[in-house]
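Sanity check

After download, print the first record. It should look like this:
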Amino acid sequence: MDAIRLNLLLALTLAGCTFPVKNDEGGDTAAVVSELDDIPTSNIPNCDGDQLLFGIELRDSSGDLVASVPAGSRTDLWATIGNPCDTTIDYQTDTQCLVESWSIEGGGFDPTTYSFLCSPEPEARTLQSGKQIRRLVSPVNDLSAGVYTIGISFSFSTSDAGSKETESISLQVTDG
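Expected structure tokens:
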């Protein structure tokens, strides 16, 4: 059996195949964007998970924030969670994912939501004072000209209303 695996590996190597397969078109902003940043803090009494700052970012292949891009270009969707308190916050996500889904609508297309496969078990997490975490959600590629609304549903429910934390952002796609 080991000989078969070695022959398969040798055949793939000689054929020029490499794994994992990666979409190199447009670059990878994950290599140029920090996943942990500093943010300003303040003295907030009884600071808990409800004070976390949830955000959404669109970045080009060089890692710069964008609100408008030419048609056909690559833009990456990022989720952010920040702790503005002067103390560490212990919080819990509803599932094992920080982001449960993202959606896009506009440009003449039907609204579409993409959900992630997440373990349904809650996960305890900690975010240090004055820190913001950033996670790559998805590339947003090859959109035609138009205005799009892109949204993220975080795996976090507020204690007040029990509703999911959501954020959205607008993206203008221009003709080349």
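If your output differs, re-run the checksum step. Summary of this record's structure: The chain is about 5% helix and 45% strand.
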